[in-house]
Specification:
The protein has 10 helices and no strands. With 226 residues, it is mainly α.
Amino acid sequence: MSLLRERRGRVMPKAHVEDTFVRLSELNPNPRTELEYSTPYELLVAVTLSAQSTDVGVNKATRRLFPVANTPAAIAALGEDGLKPYISTIGLYNAKAANVVAMARLLLERHGGEVPRTREALEALPGVGRKTANVVLNTAFGQPTMAVDTHIFRVSNRTGLAHGKDVRAVEDRLLRRVPARWLHDAHHWLILHGRYVCKARRPECPACVIRDLCTFPDKTRDAEPR
């Protein structure tokens, strides 16, 4: 990932890790995914559609789709050709339509139309990888997983919270370093922090609540007065 071309912060002290999540929790006590859903199945579909797409774009599509089809049986009945018009504004929609329909059929065949609650069963579904499984396990079922996307990968390496050359390495280190009481919400806080504050091109360091805890050596500064 391109983030590794920039300098990383030194490893954040353990005490600062705790303080990081105290501050993030005070800023946003009840963090939530920005994907819109009302059932575990809707969440599974939304996360599957979100790969290489924005949450805003996925929400626009699912607002059209879910009132028409929001169960495995309804999606399977639509079929790929019936599903595509609802998601055609999303990148890679042909492949995603194939995966979502195949997933729906497999859920009906193997799980009685219910979303499974284990990683192994989730990752056996078409289009579902480790990150998607982690999101569903955490957000739908309350398990303390860490779904590392590009935002969390960047924030973790940049701040010194958890270094890693790939997303799995960062995930494993975060699970070791984040105190247990913060694990349920940690990935939401970090995603939102990366999306709105610790941005890829130019982090908003002057507005960052953990600026003094972060070990990134190239912090941005306030604009110079005129």
